[in-house]
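Lecture notes, continued. The same structure-token format from the folding unit now serves as the input rather than the output. Read the line below as a description of shape only.
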């Protein structure tokens, strides 16, 4: 699996969102390399670059797990492989 994954989170802000995502990362040996977060009114938008070198599951497993974390906190959480993200954002 690619070692860097781009994770995005969008939703209505409330207590516990970041804790849920970070707890999942810690439990699965995923390291946050960079994080940017913006809140506008009641909404949160977060993008993270994470290192999945020590992650034991497959990429589809990660996508599924993050979907479940997102559902739990009422947000949309998505993951993209770094090379796909870079290809989509080329000029």
């Amino acid at each position: 699996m690619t070692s860097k994954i781009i994770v995005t989170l969008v939703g209505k802000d409330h207590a516990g969102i970041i804790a849920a995502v970070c707890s999942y990362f810690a439990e699965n040996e995923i390291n946050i390399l960079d994080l940017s977060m913006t809140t506008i009114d009641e909404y949160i938008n977060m993008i993270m670059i994470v290192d999945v070198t020590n992650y034991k599951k497959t990429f589809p497993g990660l996508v599924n797990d993050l979907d479940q974390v997102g559902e739990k906190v009422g947000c949309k959480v998505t993951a993209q492989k770094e090379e796909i993200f870079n290809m989509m954002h080329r000029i």
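Point for the exam: The first strand starts at residue 4 and ends at 12.
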